[in-house]
Design a protein that fits this description.
alpha/beta; six-stranded mixed sheet; five-stranded parallel sheet; 21 helices; 13 strands; 47% helix; binds 6-O-phosphono-beta-D-fructofuranose
Length: 551
């Protein structure tokens, strides 16, 4: 049967008609029409309360969302995901990040291998290693305990562990600290190792492929640093371990086989923090807390599988974002955690969403005629209020926002959390409610402005409102809640990919850049290399670099 995009479905057309009916209704009217609106447009699971009442949705909208979800067969695709079917068509692979946190004994056989056993063995290997490092039993070349972990990795081998390690900073134990080197820019390497000493430092070379240029170059620099600063060659195995699916390449680099932690082809990099890629995190918070992180993600998995659509947090958030992107033409989505410890989360969710859903052809290669993944960005509140919230409130671009906020802080200082929480709620309300011209004029009038001043100033003070946002409220940012939160976004991204019929688990778009990067790199290292194959801009810039480098 010829490919039928979702946009040709009755469910999509019904939503288009509904959009025309509802889009001119101010959100503040939806609240005044229904005093219980917040209650009717909220859902909770795994320690997360989702308040999506500040979106242009009614009960009729939810029915239409569910109809679209059924048309896209989200339930069927979800069971395919969890059962290890090939959901990553272009690489002919399953995507089993959910198996990493399942920890049941039920065998799951992939390519003839029971991966349940492999995962259990990997967790045992992690637990054993973490306990030896944290207890000081694992010692460096001169008998010192390891107290600094430097993770060398990039993309999914960096962002997830970094974001969650920061999020769980209150749970770091045994004064083991983790640092992250990702960029090939020597400034990052230099900055990170500046205050470290090889005697109590251990490097984790985290690379699923063990072929990523930045990671390998940084690993080589780390080895040279270790030896150059007095580290002994004979004990290099005490200071270098690896996480990879390419055991051969890791061994060729010089990593002891016993020090290689497994990664697998059936786990995508941006979905891999639950695997030994999460080792830097486990070394700081301990394996018990790492287990709790897995438990939180597993709780969200069960919720995602079992909950009916109208109570299903990942499905609801996916449909709300499809509604914003494909019907209200939102091009970006902001993630604003009102929690300093979650300041790294937007960067992880950027890769999760944009590398998964930044696609332009369907799973079977048909060109997509509608928008897909949004531009994901964000930063910690309340900082953003003094940087980009102006655009949220009065810009011409519509930017839906996910506000993430805990009821309790790990670090109470005076009334700071009251103020932080109040700011989060105020930003959410102002985006929805806004300020009309009449309200602006009456405000200026009651503060004694002249009519002329009022006519000049009032239009500048109007806030259109009707700007959609979600509140994700938690009691406290515990390992369980963080696990559930990241899993929530993983499944939201997955649901959107099913609606759009795109593959969220491959990333062919980054291959060409790597290849041309290698070609230009060759031209920069050898001035004799021909560059005529490049455009004149690239050629002239290579020439400037060559001149500056004057070999
Ligand atoms: O180039 C993109 C990418 O493959 C990401 O998907 C991945 O997380 C990152 O590079 C690092 O890959 P690896 O873990 O194989 O070094």
């Amino acid at each position: 049967m010829a490919y039928q995009p979702i946009t040709h479905s009755g469910a999509w057309h019904a939503l288009q008609k509904h959009h025309a009916e509802i889009s001119s209704t101010p959100l503040r009217d939806l609240f005044s029409d229904d005093p219980r609106r917040q209650e009717n447009f909220s859902a909770q699971a795994a320690g997360i309360h989702l308040d999506y009442s500040k979106n242009p949705v009614t009960s009729a909208t939810l029915e239409l969302f569910e109809h679209l979800a059924d048309t896209a067969n989200i339930k069927r695709q979800t069971s395919a995901l969890f059962n290890g079917e090939v959901v990553n068509l272009s690489e002919n692979r399953p995507a089993l990040h959910t198996a990493l946190r399942c920890r049941k004994n039920k065998p799951l056989v992939i390519d003839g291998v029971n991966i349940t056993t492999e995962i259990a063995d990997a967790l045992k290997q992690m637990r054993h290693f973490v306990s030896k490092i944290q207890s000081g039993q694992w010692q460096g070349y001169n008998g010192k305990a390891i107290r600094h972990i430097v993770n060398i990795g990039i993309g999914g081998s960096y962002l997830g562990p970094m974001a969650v390690a920061e999020a769980l900073r209150p749970y770091w134990t045994h004064d083991v600290q983790c640092h992250f080197i990702a960029n090939i820019d020597g400034s990052e390497f230099t900055e990170i190792v500046k205050n470290l000493h090889p005697e109590n430092t251990l490097f984790i070379i985290a690379s699923k492929s063990f072929g990523t240029q930045e990671t390998l170059k940084n690993a080589i620099a780390a080895k040279a640093w270790y030896l150059g600063k007095g580290g002994e060659e004979a004990h290099i195995d005490k200071h270098f371990v690896a996480v990879s699916s390419n055991i051969l390449k890791a061994k060729q680099f010089g990593i002891d086989e016993a020090n290689i932690f497994p990664m697998w082809d059936w786990v995508g990099g941006r979905y891999s923090l639950w695997s030994p890629i999460g080792l830097p995190l486990a070394l700081t918070i301990g394996m018990d807390n790492f287990d709790r992180l897995l438990d939180g993600a597993h709780a969200m998995d069960n919720h995602f599988i079992d909950a009916p659509f109208k109570q299903n947090l990942p499905a609801l958030m996916a449909m709300l974002q499809v509604w914003q992107i494909n019907f209200f033409s939102a091009q970006s989505q902001a993630i604003i955690p009102y929690d300093h410890c979650l300041r790294g989360l937007p960067a992880h969710l950027q890769q999760l969403e944009m590398e998964s859903n930044g696609k332009r052809v369907s799973q079977t290669g048909a060109p997509i005629q509608h928008d897909t993944g949004a531009i994901i960005w964000g930063g910690a509140g309340s900082n953003g209020q003094h940087a980009y919230h102006q655009l949220f409130h009065q810009g011409t671009h519509i930017v839906p926002v996910d506000f993430i906020v805990p009821l309790q802080s790990h670090n109470p200082v005076n009334d700071h959390h009251d103020i932080l929480f109040a700011n989060c709620l105020s930003q959410s309300r102002v985006m929805m409610h806004g300020k009309t011209l009449a309200e602006a004029e009456s405000e200026l009038r009651s503060s004694g402005h002249s009519e002329q001043q009022i006519s000049q100033l009032a239009p500048q003070k109007v806030i259109p409102g009707n700007r959609s946002n979600n509140i994700l409220l938690t009691d406290k940012m515990t390992p369980q809640v963080i696990g559930a939160l990241v899993a929530l976004y993983e499944h939201k991204v997955f649901c959107q990919s099913v609606i759009w019929d795109i593959n969220p688990f491959d990333q062919w778009g980054v291959e060409l850049g790597k290849q041309i990067g290698d070609d230009i790199g060759d031209a920069l290292s050898d001035p004799q290399t021909s560059i005529t194959q490049f455009d004149s801009s690239t050629q002239s810039l290579i020439k400037k670099y060559r001149a500056a480098k004057n070999y």
